[in-house]
Design brief:
Helix content is 75%, strand content 0%. It has 19 helices and no strands. α3 runs antiparallel to α6, α3 runs parallel beside α19 and α4 packs antiparallel against α19. The chain is globular.
Length: 456
């Protein structure tokens, strides 16, 4: 659930720009609508919208990192993490505090206990592992809902944001060291040839050496280093994705696939396949393979994804966990790549429809708010059901998301000077301490005692 500006470019282009692509907002809109339909019981495979979010995040974040490597030769981890914090934490923190206080004041005791238990782990971006440790099944969430359980996917993304930039930074440093070493070796070889030319006065050798130097100058060392980084990033993303798939196949429990569905290690491929398609070698290969048929191929991918969403079932579709999720994530990543490469295609223009784009622009906050709203404003609490209930909870969710977008996200992200530099660090620390105090200060209802003499 990441927003990055980038430029549609030819596959062979080595320049990464910053123009906004409406189709990517549309893809976010499709993803969140799928999740909403799934959680209201009207699209069994709508949970695959989360995979579309993952692929988008992997693609956009990797594109951003590689642009930074191309411009500066390295990655500023402090700068990257600072931008991620300003983008994601304010809206998340407001939702956590508001939902916790409302649930504590008006929720059922079981819901209050689970909320106070899950809150600190959500704040630490580890709630997916916390829920797995408590054996909380994702697929049984409608029976005993927890208001923060949907944030397992935010935790997976945040863990990716911590690790992947470090991987790219290490590869950039390694490529620069090896590239500069090769450059120095080449310069020494040229010096030796120059001496040999002077000693032998051999004009033929001199002309050959001159041609070699001219050819090496055509591809500057910096460009060679940049291409090497992109190749290593692509190779790393592919290898780790395959390892993640192997783990999913090895660890899946056919009776309850929660472990492999929400585990960071077994879902890494959904993010990394997006990262793979963002690299120059894959973009160039994709351009060569599809040629002028990019729009048609994008249409085929849309049909395939739509079929998967219509037939998939979280617990009844075992094929998802033995390659199906991998294939869906790959299709999503390729669709993203084609929307970037062929922004004038029919698919990209449809995805750029203004209402769909607007839903995509509020998709992060809408994802944050929709599940707590659905859980707290249950049909039993509102005494309505069916489409009336769906209309009410969706309206409340969209209203909350829009308020979060325009009153919290955008002002802090784009206009709040205090949120940058040392002021931003101080604000972040104060916020984290304040939220930790909240979890500690609010008393949880006592667990009901069980009279064992009445059992049996």
């Amino acid at each position: 659930m990441t927003t990055v500006q980038l430029k549609p470019a030819s596959p062979a282009s080595s320049v990464r720009g910053r123009r906004h692509l409406p189709a990517l907002d549309g893809l976010r809109g499709v993803a969140i609508l799928g999740v909403l339909l799934f959680h209201t019981g009207h699209l069994g495979g709508g949970f695959l919208g989360v995979d579309l979010f993952f692929a988008l995040s992997g693609y956009l974040i990797t594109d951003l990192l590689l642009r930074e490597v191309g411009g500066s030769g390295s990655v500023s981890l402090v700068g990257f993490w600072g931008r991620r914090i300003r983008r994601l934490v304010p809206a998340l923190a407001v939702m956590l505090v508001v939902v916790t206080v409302v649930v504590w004041g008006f929720g059922a005791p079981d819901l209050v206990r689970s909320t106070l238990s899950d809150g600190p782990w959500t704040q630490a971006d580890l709630v997916n592992w916390h829920l797995l440790a408590e054996s909380a099944s994702y697929w049984d969430s409608h029976d005993a809902p927890r208001v923060f359980e949907h944030l397992w996917s935010i935790a997976v993304e945040e863990q990716f944001y911590v690790v992947w930039p470090v991987v790219v930074l290490l590869m950039a440093g390694w490529a620069r060291r090896t590239g500069l070493r090769a450059k120095r070796q080449g310069e020494r070889q040229v010096e030796l040839r120059d001496k040999r030319v002077e000693q032998s006065n051999d004009q033929r050798v001199e002309r050959q050496d001159k041609r070699r130097v001219e050819q090496s100058d055509e591809q500057p060392v910096e460009r060679q280093i940049e291409r090497r980084v992109e190749s290593w990033v692509a190779a790393s993303a592919l290898v780790i994705s395959l390892l993640s798939l192997v783990l999913m196949i090895a660890l899946v429990d056919p009776n309850d696939p929660t472990r492999v569905y929400t585990g960071t290690d077994t879902r890494a491929f959904s993010l990394l396949l997006g990262a793979l398609v963002a690299t120059r070698p894959v973009r160039e290969a994709l351009g060569r393979v599809v040629g002028r048929r990019g729009g048609a191929v994008a249409g085929v991918l849309v049909v395939g994804i739509a079929v998967a969403w219509s037939v998939a079932d979280g617990t009844g579709s075992h094929w998802l966990y033995v390659g199906g999720l991998f294939g869906h994530s790959l299709a999503a990543a390729l669709l993203i790549g084609l929307c970037v490469q062929v922004p004038g295609s029919v698919v990209a223009r449809v995805l750029g429809w203004l209402p769909l784009r607007w839903v995509g622009q509020i998709s992060y906050s809408l994802y944050l708010w929709h599940w707590p709203v659905f859980v707290f404003l249950s049909p039993q609490r509102l005494h309505v059901a069916g489409w009336t209930w769906i209309a009410v909870v969706c309206a409340v969710s969209i209203g909350s998301a829009a308020a979060s977008k325009y009153l919290v996200e955008d002002p802090i992200r784009f206009r709040a000077g205090w949120a940058r530099g040392r002021g931003g660090l101080v604000a972040f620390v104060v916020l984290m301490v304040g939220m930790a105090v909240l979890w500690w200060a609010l008393p949880a209802p006592a667990t009901p005692a069980i009279d064992i003499t009445r059992l049996g």
